[in-house]
Amino acid sequence: MNLTCAIVDDEPLALGLLESYVNKTPFLTLTGKYSSAVQAMKELPEKQVDLLFLDIQMPELNGLEFSKMVDSHTRIVFSTAFEQYAIDGYKVNALDYLLKPISYVDFLQAANKAVQWFELLQQPKDEIESIFVKSDYKLVQIELKKILYVEGLKDYVKIYTEDNPRPILSLMSMKSMEELLPASRFMRVHRSYIVQKEKIRVIDRGRIVFDKTYIPVSDSYKQVFQAFLDKRS
């Protein structure tokens, strides 16, 4: 898959470095480079940009402010010399965060993550094998086959997987999580729980058991759960 990209950075050396990285990456095509967010604001709306490499600290209009004006289709990778901006990049849904001086290895990892993101968007929902969620200030890819269940906790979800003793914490609603997961493989059994159907091994008194965790099935989902049990028997 090929992606179009643009660069916004007020430092000439950084702008030139990122341009050189784009030019030697076969699946990236540079559609524009800008020395300020104000300049980019005037020209970017007329272009189709998949991936935007965006500096944070810039005069007049900084990268965080400008990111809120960018088309929702465009994925953003922030670049900055100050690590404390990572949490701000997380809040505006950045795909990745690059700390200056940027190596080509880090740049390529971010570009590959963008490719994976757009490839997932093109797949039918029932055919996807992984999802991206925001965690630890970045988008993290999770293989669906490894998910056991998801627990909702106010504005967050905890994603429990087979290969990680600690759940992955992400700032999103259960409704958003449910829409992200294919219904053919996952089932909501409670307002606070989504489980992967094929991972259900033990049912005790109407509750789903994962190791020492008992997941209740609420009244509003019992009919759906019973239909699942009838199909399995």
Automatic annotation (TrEMBL):
This is DNA-binding response regulator. Keywords: DNA-binding, Phosphoprotein. The keyword Phosphoprotein applies. It comes from Bacteroides stercorirosoris. One of its GO terms (molecular function) is DNA binding. Residues 4-115 form the Response regulatory domain. InterPro entries: CheY-like_superfamily, LytR-like, LytTR_DNA-bd_dom, Sig_transdc_resp-reg_receiver. It comes from the Bacteria. The modification 4-aspartylphosphate is found at D55. The keyword rRNA processing does not apply. Residues 131-231 form the HTH LytTR-type domain.
